[in-house]
Design brief:
Belongs to the peptidase C56 family. The N and C termini lie close together (about 5 Å). This protein has a single domain, classed as Class I glutamine amidotransferase (GATase) domain (Rossmann fold). The strands form three sheets. A seven-stranded mixed beta sheet has the order 5-2-1-6-7-11-10, with helices on both faces. The model has no long low-confidence stretch (mean pLDDT about 95). It is α/β, with parallel strands linked by helices. Helix content is about 30%, strand content about 25%.
Length: about 190
């Protein structure tokens, strides 16, 4: 069974971790969650409330990380998923998280990123010349990294499949599963 790794941490958006986790398992892949440390992670729920200029955040589900970033060998995995939430704000500073992302881009392997996930891709130096979606308020971050921002639910640029946030989960993961099939990566 082929394996896919999800790179995340505390304060990741619950729906952006669990939807790909379960959707990719359903498609027949073994899915591992990697974080700065192998520990129980606390996810959050972002929602939109009338009268607020941005999303609100509440505690979400917790889940155990399977492996620490330092222990990940990217060659053991066929693809990587980078969910959003606030986790990418700090995991983008992790040398091993950047190493892992860069390894997938270096071998042109499938990469899925959503919401604030492209912050990690930008920190890894892999967005220059690419087209990506992200949480719309990150358009400036994407552009400063040398990429073209597109506000879409399933933006595909070669091996990269990106989206804005959890409301795009269905189209985002649908396009990612298609990218896995196009890359001839069996479940």
């Amino acid at each position: 069974m082929e394996r896919i790794i999800i790179l995340t941490g505390d304060a990741a958006e619950t729906l952006e971790v669990f939807y790909p986790y379960h959707r990719l398992q359903e498609a027949g892949y073994e899915v591992h969650i990697a974080a700065p440390e192998k520990k129980k992670l606390q996810f959050v729920v972002h929602d939109f409330v009338d009268g607020f200029d941005t999303y609100t955040e509440k505690p979400g589900h917790s889940w155990n990380a399977d492996i620490a970033f330092a222990d990940v060998d990217p060659a053991d995995y066929v693809a990587v998923v980078v969910p959003g939430g606030r986790a990418p704000e700090y995991i983008r500073n992790n040398v091993d998280a950047k190493r892992i992302v860069k390894a997938f881009f270096d071998r042109n392997a499938p990469v899925a990123a959503t919401c604030h996930g492209p912050l990690l891709l930008a920190a890894a130096g892999v967005l220059a010349g690419r087209t990506t979606s992200a949480y719309p308020e990150l358009a400036i971050d994407v552009e400063l990294a040398g990429a073209t921002f597109v506000s879409g639910g399933a933006v595909v640029d070669g091996n990269l499949v990106s989206a804005r946030a959890w409301p795009d989960n269905g189209t985002w993961m649908g396009a990612f599963v298609e990218a896995l099939a196009a890359a001839r990566i069996p479940a």
